[in-house]
Design brief:
Blueprint (H helix, E strand, L loop, with lengths): L1 E4 L5 E5 L2 E5 L12 H5 L4 E3 L5 H4 L2 H8 L2 E5 H8 L6 E4 L4 E4 L2 E7 L5 E4 L2 E4 L4 E6 L6 E3 L9 H8 L3 E5 L8 H11 L4 E5 L12 H6 L6 E2 L8 E2 L1
Parallel strand pairs: 3-4, 4-5, 5-6, 12-13, 13-14, 14-15
Antiparallel strand pairs: 1-2, 1-16, 2-3, 7-8, 8-11, 9-10, 11-12
Length: about 230
């Protein structure tokens, strides 16, 4: 599996004929690369929740690529109304089989919505996302979340090997709680910290998180934006 981080919580997964963008907040994340490289080969867009710093460039990318959007019923209905044609609605706890992989939405402790004409519109529940594919390591994108002990149950059920873990604090777990999750509730081989350094309100780097992760088997990868790595 080829993985690319574009800053904030935006990732691309590539394997076989599949190209998945997760939470593609690209143009606002500080990424300065070629958007054509980001969108090349994209078949699906997966969104954890409806905040603007996760929905990001979804509408533009979906229209350009014809990618299928997968998210909660409320989020896909909202974006379908903005011109995203191919949608797969889901909700927390459900799984769907797509060409080449399976998506499961799991719980996250956060919120989900967007300002519409000055009023905050609720857009369903926030989620984490599990991506399972034959012959590939299972990926768990935690989305935006606080710490919760049922992360251990998610680990037992789906056995993810790769985790995208928010560490920025204030709006999600910070270094202390994110490291606690990795050390005590998850059994990941590779962790990529995310949701930090994008805005001044977030942790400026991953240093505190890295220092507090003590599980020997877990490798922490802090990639450069737009530079892919294999997992």
């Amino acid at each position: 599996m080829r993985i690319t981080w574009y800053g904030h919580s935006a990732f691309k997964l590539e394997f076989g004929e599949v190209g998945i963008l997760l939470d593609p907040f690209i143009t606002g994340s500080g990424y300065r690369g070629d958007m054509n490289e980001v969108t090349r080969g994209v078949t699906h867009i997966l969104l954890t929740h409806g905040h603007g710093d996760h929905v990001g460039d979804t509408v533009q990318i979906a229209k350009q690529t014809g990618a299928t959007l997968v998210s909660s019923f409320e989020v896909v209905s909202w974006l379908n109304g903005q011109g995203v044609e191919k949608v797969e609605p889901m909700n927390t706890g459900g799984s769907i089989q797509l060409p080449g992989f399976t998506v499961t939405l799991v719980q996250a402790f956060h919120s989900s919505g967007e300002l519409v004409n000055g009023v905050f519109a609720q857009l369903g529940h926030p989620n984490g996302i599990i991506v399972e594919a034959p012959g590939q390591p299972t990926v768990y994108h935690l989305g935006d979340t606080g710490l919760f002990s049922d992360m251990k149950l998610i680990q037992e059920l789906y056995q993810p090997k790769i985790g995208f873990v928010p560490i920025g604090d204030r709006f999600t777990m910070g270094a202390r709680t994110a490291a606690y999750a990795v050390n005590n509730f998850l059994d990941l081989e590779t962790v990529v910290p995310c949701h930090y350094a994008t805005f001044g309100l977030l942790a400026p780097n991953a240093d505190d998180f890295i220092r507090q992760v003590t599980k020997a088997k877990t490798k922490i990868v802090v990639p450069e934006k737009g530079v892919a790595f294999e997992a």
